[in-house]
Amino acid sequence: MASKNNIGQRRLVVGAHYGVKDWLAQRVTAIVMVVYTLILLGTFLTAQNFTYEGWAALFSRQWFKLFSAVTFFGLFYHVWVGMRDIWMDYVKNAGIKLALQFITVLLLVAYAVWTVQILWSV
């Protein structure tokens, strides 16, 4: 009978370490965003040609486009984990929770497509 009530040593544990991956991903994406911000700030502070042409030259470099894309995709994943946790913790109605998560995903995908369009149009 002890195995049916799920108490004691025979307790069925599911979802162990469920949040560790997302917690670690948020820390890694935060570090990437900080490094990107520092590089952008350093470029801004040391630039002598700080005009549209200077910014266009910076963003025309392939490595900077890729670094920007990786940073923004990291930002979008960071936002997804945070918003998903907010919806899961504070919205009790399952239908509303699912709708909010769906809207969040749609917006983040749209933002990702828009980011690629902007980065590769320079």
From TrEMBL:
Keywords: Cell inner membrane, Cell membrane, Electron transport, Heme, Iron, Membrane, Metal-binding, Transmembrane, Transmembrane helix, Transport, Tricarboxylic acid cycle. The keyword Transport applies. Pathway: Carbohydrate metabolism; tricarboxylic acid cycle. The chain crosses the membrane at residues 28-46, 66-86, 98-120. It is a multi-pass membrane protein. The keyword Electron transport applies. Its cofactor is heme. It comes from the Bacteria. It is found in: Cell inner membrane. Membrane-anchoring subunit of succinate dehydrogenase (SDH). This is Succinate dehydrogenase hydrophobic membrane anchor subunit. The gene is sdhD.
